[in-house]
Amino acid sequence: MKKVSLFLVIFVLGVLAGCGSESSTSGSDAKETSEGQEITIWAWDPKFNIAAFDLAESYYQEDHPDFSINVTEISQQDSVQKMNTIFSSGGTQGLPNIVLIEDFRIRNFLEVFPEYFVPLTDYINVEDFMDYKIEVSSVDGEQYGMPFDSGVAGVYLRKSIIEESGLAITDFHDISWQTFNTLGMQVKEATGKPLFSIDMNDLAHLRMMMHSSGYWYTTEDGETPFIDGNPSLKQGFEDLKMMLDSGVITTHNGWDQLLAGFNSGDVAGVLQGNWITPSVKSEDSHSGDWVVVPVPKQENIDTSVHATNLGGSSIYVLDIDGKEEALHYISEVFGKNIAFYEELVQTVGAIGSYIPAAEGEAYKATDPFFDNQPIYQDFVTWATEIPSVNFGKNTYALEDIMNPVFLDYVNGADLAEGLKNAQAIAENQLN
Amino acid sequence: MRNRLLLKKGALTGWCFIAIPTLLIFFFSFYPMVQAFMMSLQSGTGIGLSFSGLANYRRLFSDQTFLAATKNTLTFLCFQVPIMVILAMFFSVLLNNRALKLKGVFRTIIFLPAVTSLVAYSMVFKSLFANNGVINGILLRLSLVSEPIAFFSSPFWAKVIIVLAITWRWTGYNMIFFLSALQNVDPSIYEAARIDGASPLKQFFNITIPMLKPVILFSAVTSTIGTLQLFDEPMNLTQGGPGNATFTISQYIYNLSFRYTPDFGYASAVSYAIVVMVIFFSFIQFKVGGDDT
User: I need a labelling partner for A33 at 20 to 30 A (CA). Which of A6, A91, A427, B170 fits?
Assistant: First the structure.
């Protein structure tokens, strides 16, 4: 009998303990301090995005000293999955006030879970922002996202390696991928180094090429898969394979290897969005030796330009307690404050999408790390040329379908058949 | 009279105690199963689900991604389960030797992987097999290869690494079952066999294995179920890559539910596909394993 009662006591205690810990984690994430509101934010990259939010906080606190933010560092993948989970549950518990979402991911949320997002229509002047950033987050004329960083891309190259191969940096201006490949082969022969590296698990470079021509995995409606018969996609595949085969580009596996490649000098350059700048600058010994040239365009595609985008996100306010404060914070700093954007580009290196700020002095500055090239001005100029593309809500799913096709093609499979196959799979899967 | 009352009271207490876990199992296992089945008969994005009959199941058969995932999962199954069961048996026989010193140490070493943190060992494996990692370093130094093997970029090697990781992780766990079964075997049987002139190999095949049959069956069935639901290793080590090479069915369910636009109806249908496969394989194994279990 004693053993039974002992067991019962332990069991009851255990149940109580379990119940007890559950009740202490209820309530929404936005805490209200005795003076003002604390706004929670989900963002990734402490050196870039989170630094921007902190900087914005200090600007906002000049007029609103009681305001404070609580930034949770969370990768985009994790944040997307978390939001999907919480949205699907129908509740709001655990959501932040403000969330940073990559542009090609947002349509999914705006079309499937629109009720969670607060329209910014009265809080933003859309003409002040770059077109392609505005259109991404607007649905039926309502603006949902505050454009943040422009992911405008450029080809970063090591000057000394280029010149060692007998070429000039100007040779890389306004060229097609075909020419890029020829020049790259010369560099490879002279120095043994490839011009940049790609991650075989991620079709980022294909996306960049398509975006530079105004194409995407889908047609303009963002819904219909446009794989078979997509000239830009096909050209992109062929150009990438051409460069892989000739050794002009090499492969890396993951972020760390990407950085190790160009920071160590094994790779002569990098092609990513301008958010790669802090990582390029982290290698002090290369100071003065880097330059940025415009991206090559796709030959045979009329709409192709020397400008493209990779990544880049916008800021969204979620419909939970504290949204008014969040809306003011976003619109007053990110929506209007030129001084903020100037300091942003100087200290963080982030190029915003706010056009009035881009005409300021800070953006015209030359960067000694980049051989005194006014890189921010260059990026902004290219950014204005980037074609608008409707990313649709199925980019992740389509990429997962295209990735094996690309790998098979690189390993020798027939491209036409692979694309036709992929088109069928995509139509089947995305109904 | 008193005995019967006691029996009745005992029975009642017994029923009360069983009632609680039964209710828990009902609410946390059976009810969700039924709900999942109901959901698999619906389709739509996010929470906007509407009834669509067997459309999701029909979609399964023409879904190339699902078929690729199934192929991968079955490949892992066919290679990993036999290797692991054989290894576990092998180790357990070795460690069952009475004369072996430091038995406890060896058992701990072999069992430890089962309790290590999944994420921790994934990172270690990733760095071990990286292009400039330890394994490639050894291979290069021993001149077995002329340039580093890109383990994670090669469809074949990525699968090998997954099988390696799973085997490393679970062999010890299964070995414990074999060990305890072996210790129930009367050593006099082995002595008798040795006196009769049977070689160790003959002893192994004719005595050990038949005695271990129930445990082999148990191990095989649970490993099959575990491998059919394989998620952790591909997710952490290779993210299903390169391309689709190590993509498993459970990963597909995860992608459908949380990574892409949530399609819970179809995801439930895929999970029921796993149920069917589990039933199928377990049935076969029970049939093959003998009727005395």
Answer: A91
